[in-house]
Amino acid sequence: MGRVRDYQIDQMETPIMDKCPECDGEGIVYYEVARPQSFTRDVGYLDEVSEVCEKCSGDGEIKRLCDCGDIVTLGMGHDAEECEDCANDR
Ligand SMILES: [Zn+2]
Ligand SMILES: [Zn+2]
Fold first, then answer.
1. Which residues are near ligand 1, the ion (C-beta closer than 5 Å)?
2. What's the Rg (C-alpha) of the chain?
């Protein structure tokens, strides 16, 4: 009995992780910076810079959040988009 129950509680507390839309799951974002070629030429070039993704802190995935701001947990099923509280409200 006990084991099944623990498993269910685990699911209820495990947030669903989604691939970070900001970095496409890479954990790193790339962006281009325009740099001047030199002081005498005004034709610049684009330099690609990479940075750890702020949204996911480099994890490449983020917790799925309900509209209310709570995390959506695995207990609601993999495709759930609302938290337990909101689902129960309806
Ligand atoms: Zn990211
Ligand atoms: Zn909610």
1. 20, 22-23, 53, 55-56
2. 21
For the chain, the average pLDDT equals 88
CA 55 – CA 13 distance, rounded (Å): 22
pTM over 0.70: no
Percent of the chain with pLDDT over 90: 59
- Clarify whether residues 54 and 76 are in a common domain: no
Q: Which domain holds residue 73?
A: 1-16+64-90
Please report which ligand is nearest the Cα atom of 58. Answer: 1
**Are both 86 and 76 inside the same structural domain?**
yes
- Indicate whether 44 and 78 sit together in one domain: no
End-to-end alpha carbon distance in the chain: 30
pLDDT tens-digit profile of 60-76?
A: 999 999 999 999 999 98
